[in-house]
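In this section we walk through a basic example: taking a raw amino acid sequence and producing a predicted 3D structure, encoded as discrete structure tokens. The instruction is simple. Fold the sequence below.
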Amino acid sequence: MTKRSVERVKIERSSGNVFADLELPDADKLKIKSGLVIEIARGIRRLGLTQHQAAERMGISQPKVSGLLKGDFANLSERKLMDCLNRLGYDIQIKVQPTRAEVGALTLAIG
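The resulting token sequence is shown next.
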């Protein structure tokens, strides 16, 4: 990351993953999960669902929907978040391919 000062305020360029920038463990997984949660929130709005309706449709409790929409997704696995998206009418494709790097990367593409 590159640091510089603008009008005596230090600015640090992001790596593209705020969780990694904050040096949180499992930053790649948190980035993926947060992307899934953002899309769940969009799906709920697109369908015009109440939290109660969304909970019934996704197969989770209304308090979990409330927490999810407030950014509390630690208690839900990536698989459960993908299941919620399926239940909201989303298709999910997982693409696995070799990489030239020694270690591969997790990437979420929403389109």
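Looking at the output, two observations stand out. The longest strand covers residues 3-6. The chain is about 45% helix and 5% strand. In the next section we compare this with other chains.
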